[in-house]
Amino acid sequence: MFNKIVILxxxxxxxxxxxxxxxxxxxxxxxxxxxxxxxxxRDCSHELEHISKCTKMITCVGYYNEYKFDVNGKYTxxxxxxxxxxxxxxxxxxxxxxxxxxxxxxxxxxxxxxAHVVNSPEKIITYYEEPYQDYVASIAFxxxxxxxxxxxxxxxxxxxxxxxxxxxxxxxxxxxxxEILIPILDTPIxxxxxxxxxxxxxxxxxxxxxxxxxxxxxxxxxxxxxxxxYADAPFNRGFSGGLVMAIKDxxxxxxxxxxxxxxxxxxxxxxxxxxxIQKNRLETALDPYKGDMFNKKLEMIMYGVTxxxxxxxxSKFYEQNKDYxxxxxxxxxxxFKR
Length: 338
Hints:
The protein is mainly beta. The chain has helices at about 1-15, 45-50, 115-120, 310-325, 335; strands spanning about 55-70, 85-105, 110-115, 125, 135-150, 160-165, 170-175, 200-205, 210-220, 230, 245, 255-275, 295-310.
């Protein structure tokens, strides 16, 4: 009898030790209408891939004519005249960022990005190093500007509207490609004012020219700033204009909540020798430098502090300019009222 009891206990232990528990994560999601603060409860690579197809790398190329001046001429900006230039050369000034296709209709596409990505200055002025810092070394004038977009067969992209304050630009272009082949962002527009401390976001962009997806945690300033919020996502050059998405009540409920605009930076001062001294007049590496020293400034990007322009500010910007966009043949109500 004792042996039978032992056998029954062993069988019971074996049965229970082999039991497999399956958790239904769907039932763990609290559908409270708020943006999620946790990682997605299930695989969402399909949705992320679909969204990423709408983001494109854009390059703005400014073509300049540059005039260089002799330091002995002591030309200040007030009395500068290109007829006194020593030489004339040409150069290109390039900037790269990320844009998202938000509309395609009647052979036209509309994209949204950062204003600073597509803004080329009309003039670029350089000065000589100290102690000649008051004298112009060169001045360059913008001749023309071209904006190119990866995967889109057009070289006629133009800036429709832009706002340097919130760093937003909406671009337009005519395309010869069939509209069915161009992916557009079809997720709903969110409300950045509903974001909270710890809201989880995905970022899509082209840092250093590589198509990448990153993620971060939202931090909010107090009181809430309607134009910007911050996330701890990594940021590199080329990510400007990157799409920022949040999830509400679990996958697949993605919503656009903004675009990445910039990273925080710190500036450091350091001492530099006089760079105008000819090399044959400099001391050797074995001797201490005895010439003049000048104060320089170095910029260091603080990775992990990314500023994001909110979708609330973007929507307000659109409302202020929608009549002009319609007059140009761009009807974006389908995107901003989705």
